[in-house]
Design brief:
2 domains, 8 helices, alpha+beta, 7 strands, 22% strand, seven-stranded antiparallel beta sheet, 225 residues
Length: 225
């Protein structure tokens, strides 16, 4: 009697389902996919991209900062400003924006610090500070009331002329100083509910930010949580 087909099979020979599915082949494919994903992740995340050739231009700190509000000056870092506000026991919020680093464009990190109850010249108001690549370049103060603030501001900033028909602006070196408090304090200003403000701005850093936006149109990244 002839031996059955199963009897003729070698005991080490895999079953038919194993030959059909070929799991080792799929394991090999999955292994290659895993290695490929790991390499891509390492190249994109672990290994930092090379800096853009103009990175230094957009991050350099000048040796001659301009004086802004109180003791703050342009090119101050976020950490320096926070320490100054903490020393004054002023409460504030920080909103950073950190686009992903890339070799296709220089860094465009920005921070906005808002102190809702900041005293300037003895008058409380809202102070907003803007940073570009960890360098303070703009300070905006909105006084809570104008009864005494207008005279105090002109005494502290004699470069500002009294203009009751609109905005006053002066440029001294790299500092741009602008305000509308004279107009806001008039009957017309009150009737129009004009929001008073004073702005200190370093024109050098502002020009760099405008240059970045003009040349690198697409702004990568989203506001950090």
């Amino acid at each position: 009697m002839a031996a059955s087909t199963d009897d003729k099979k070698h005991w080490l020979e895999p079953p038919a389902w194993w030959k059909k599915v070929k799991p080792l082949r799929w394991l090999a494919i999955l292994g290659m996919v895993f290695v490929g994903v790991s390499v891509l992740y390492t190249a994109k995340v672990v290994i930092a991209p090379a800096p853009h050739p103009e990175t230094q231009k957009f991050t350099q700190v000048a040796s001659d900062p301009v004086k802004m509000i109180d003791q703050l000056k342009s090119y101050d870092s976020v950490a320096t400003v926070r320490a100054a506000l903490d020393a004054k026991k002023v409460k504030y919020t920080v909103a950073p924006v950190r686009p992903a680093p890339s070799s296709k464009y220089p860094p465009r990190d920005t921070d906005t610090i808002v102190a809702a109850d900041y005293p300037h010249l003895g008058v409380p108001g809202q102070l907003t500070l803007e940073f570009f690549n960890d360098r303070l370049f703009e300070a905006t103060f909105v006084p809570g009331q104008l009864d005494d603030y207008v005279d105090k501001l002109h005494a502290a900033e004699p470069r500002l002329k009294r203009e009751r028909d609109g905005r006053t602006e002066t440029i001294s070196g790299n500092l741009r100083l602008a305000t509308n408090v004279d107009f806001a304090s008039t009957d017309t200003g009150y009737s129009l509910q004009t929001k008073p403000y004073v702005i200190w701005q370093d024109l050098r850093i502002k020009a760099q930010l405008d240059d970045w936006d003009r040349r690198f149109v697409a702004r990568p990244g989203k506001p950090a949580p």
